[in-house]
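Recall that a protein's primary structure is simply its ordered list of amino acids. Everything else, from secondary elements to tertiary packing, is in principle encoded there. The following example makes that idea concrete.
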Amino acid sequence: MNLEDFRAEWIEDLRVAAEANQSDPHSEFVLDAVDRLSEAEEVENVEVGYFEGLGRRNAKMMIDGYAFDAVDKSCVLLLSDYSNNELAETLTLTDINRLYNNMRVLVEAALDGYIIDNKFEESSSGYMFANEAKRHFANGEISKFRFYILTDKKLSDKIKNLKKDPIVGKQVDLNAWDISRFYNLYASTQGKEEIEIDSSIVDGGGIPYVGATNEDDYSAYLAVVPGRFLADIYLEYGSRLLEGNVRSFLSNRGKVNKAIRGTILQEPTMFFAYNNGIAATATEIETKQENGRHLITRIKDMQIINGGQTTASIANAVLQDKADLAEIYVPMKLSVVNHDKAKEMIPTISRSANSQNKVDEADFFSNHPYHIRLEEYSRRVLAPPVDGNQYQTAWFYERARGQYVQEQMKLTRGDRKKFQLKNPKTQLLRKVDVAKFMNSYEQRPHIVSRGAQFNMRNFAEMIGKQWDPSTQNTSFNEYYWKKLIALAILFKQTEKIVSGQDWYQEIKAYRANIVTYSIAIIMHQVETDHPGKTLDFLKIWNSQSLSSELEAQIIKTTRKVFDFITRDDRTTLNVTEWCKKEDCWKRAQNYNFTLLGSFVESLINTSDEFEEKVVAQKEQKVSNEINAEIELINLGADYWRRVQEFGRNDKLLSEMEDGLLTVAANFETTGRIPSDKQAKLIMQIRNRLFDEGLSRNL
């Protein structure tokens, strides 16, 4: 797909989404663009909401969304310029300056109290931003401003530099995401914009290194990195430099590590001795030899997978303490992974690198059997045809980021249309979506409201506890998949219903909070007031839609949820922040929500659902047994010999386990295929060895 095709398809998708969601293409563009940037880990937890007003001297103020990045202490503002035209227009420097000034005026009016003092509408995103910005700034939690201009236009070739002066003494980064940049993101195999670091600027012409390993798909280097260089790249790229799991870990750590800061300021010459250093990955490096020294001069797609706290501490020492880093040097282990293998290998390397830290196993979640099973059902179980169509469709599950795009990259335009017909983009599911749907259903709306990454970690922990190989996990079966899709339909339709309500059109805020709380409330009320009853999830699956009774209940509940979360007696002024608190959910459970009689009559007995579950569990048990034998054979005898060798070398096998692996390691020569029971036991042995350090890329 070329740039023109990408743009035409995107615009058409946005128009379809606008019609389906009863909104407008401009609003859909903002939501989709932010979603793409979030997926690429460019931004996180953006509060999407349009705001327009007049500041001092009638200067225009505008934003489409904002966020505060706790990791690199940046304040993020986004504003769009969407043309919705068939032919791409040009985004000029004049356009950029106008849009930037709209955001800059807002920041200044927020920090000097103008917005709050002039009593702008408290439910507006501008007021909410101003309130949070003042608090973050007062607490020293803003070190720089990151401005994003989002557009379907093409950036003028004449524009070479977007440098802007500091605001209130803080660094400003201005990013223009035009259609070409979005296309490059789409085409990226990593699903994110690559970082390319010029390390030749280091004194001496590069970073000194020693080669440790050199294989076809992987090479490793030991290096010593100047603290100043590490601080500079962190201040430039911020949290983008940190691998996703490390970012999540750091955002929960609170204040900068005092011990690291103390060493930087008081014993800089001992930093190298006291600190464990950092571990990083890259997809490519450039090196040179000079005066007998081996130097790294360029690093492509660098990601810090361990040592994020060290990196952030060094950068903060510069920002807060004006520290001189001339004597700070940091040991670095750099793993360079073949670009095509990066998606698979980097999470595994990250997992191993963080094994000594308190980073939950569930954070490294893409390869978890739970997701593998969902992916399997996604490709195998087709949804019933609807709206008079004579064909079935699939709900495409992305176990790994970018799968949906990657499967289309090499298709012809005709084949791509066929693929999209079978796998419509409206039925694309990601891990963060599943976490959002399930935690809403499980009555954790305050968790969902805390953002995609936090919610994902919470859900991962829950699945990690529920997933038990010894039980064959038969509860995660075809019925579970259909119920999950029913919840997806419920969530998406609730979003649409909220967007179409007159009361929402007036405020256009808090939709995400309203939706998750409404679903949680409905489930809570059914559970509390009508025990023994539940939603008919199979009916939703079979019709791929909601009943009129359920839609009526959603209309009623969503309005009452809005009234509840915006009540004057909330303990936190910011509505979005209030929804994140457990106290908000506890209050909601005791609020006067009620269920419509017609909706109650549409519920089914939980015993009926139980029967469906039992049948599905039996089918899953048979499937597990068959799949275990098939997987064992497909992996091949050589694979099992390597598994056995790992177990033997580390003395991790009992005599019985070693005997079973011997059968698996020799089945090609002996012709003796392990029985169903043996295959299951062998798989369990292998899964246990994974936890002991066995590579998943064996």
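The CA atoms of residues 334 and 482 lie 43 Å apart. The two ends are 34 Å apart (CA to CA).
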